[in-house]
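Researcher: Structure prediction, please.
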Amino acid sequence: MFSRKVFLILFLLFHIFFFSLALFEYQGNKFYYILFSITSLFYLVYLTDDNSFFYENFISVFLYSGIWLNFSIKITFFNSIFPEGVGFFDYKPSSYDEVIYVCTISFLSIIFASFIRRKIFFKFDNSINKVVLNFSSKKILFWSILFLLFTILISILNYKYSIHQRSLTPKIELNFFISNFFKWFLIIGCTTFFAYFINLLIDSKSKLPKILILFHIIAEFIINLSMLSRGMIFNSLSIAWGILKKKNYKNENVFRFIYLILIFCFFFLSVKIIGDLRIENKNKLNKYCNTQTIFEVVPKSSFKNTDVNNKYLKIFLSRLIGIEGVMAVQSLDNKGFHLIKNALKETTNSRNEISFFDSLKSDKRCVNEFSKSITLPGIIAFLYYSGSLVFVATSLFLISILMCSIEKIMRYLLKEQLLFISLISQILAYRMWHFGFAPLNSIKLFVAIFLTIFLVYLINKFFKIKQ
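Model: Predicted structure follows.
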């Protein structure tokens, strides 16, 4: 089995490799980069140990990738080219120092929040009592097949009418409840179903329900195709991580390896298909878009003139959200709490306007009645609108405590439902990673999450009893 010691050794080698190369390329004070790298290393190791919560696991990986790894790769191998745009960043040594100083303080704040959380909330016990199903496994399999067919139907309707698709506006006006049902089902609902019943069958049979796990991977693949989203890997891996954390089934290392391989195979296939579909849609919509893209506005911040010819590498690098946002906000001369106040006014209904963040960095993107292209600042950059490091650190501390409190509540109410808890924690961490566009819209996500938690709590009472 892949032990934590092996992980730590491999990760340390990985981190040292990129650190040693990036240190020579860093244009600012080397001491700041060394401190930044040490903090980032400790940040990810500490927030993924045995005493960490699911939310801490995911936010550590997301922010480490989007901040430290993203920054180190691009200054080392891509001549400090940042494809998502860095606004008016001047590339001066002092500006680089300020950026990584903000990120270092942010990581330290989250580490401190985890330290305090461990004093308040005890470690999870993943040893679960065996449960008895009120329904047979065959009936659950039958309903799972019907649910998969229902998922396919919802996905077809979503793709046809663009009810919830990345960068595209809906083609039809739907009732408020129907529209939000589609969004809930695609983002949370479908995966919740599979997370719950995979978890339930593990607890009752003490083995992995292989067919249901396969159904889940297929469902995630189909749903993300319908949303034109390359993000199927996040929900899929959150379920896999929940399974890995459970201790009450016989280890099936061969199947778990095949399971991970299938997730990545379907993910890469989805990236290929969705890439082709997006190109097709882009060609259809180009005639409606009169604005330039980031690649034409800020040549310094584009891969256009580099040797990066692999489109999959471009996709990977451009999706590491975090450092570009902090760099863009650092370059602003008018930072202050008024920017946060103005950002909170942004809504998803502003279809014919560029996003607040893109307007700050003068990033002209394709925006019309059919589609909307945006970049995201991330939670650290959003909080740094204020220009106050104290505000950034305090806010990140409170956010971390809040998210872990939600996870603790789930654990208290749902106890053994680790897969569902892992899923929700990943969704919350993902939202923080991508935070910034229409920020108050996150209230809808929280409402949906709490309603889903309550729904799972009720289902728990209905489907099983404990011995």
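Model: Residues 253-285 form the longest helix (33 residues).
Researcher: Thanks, that helps.
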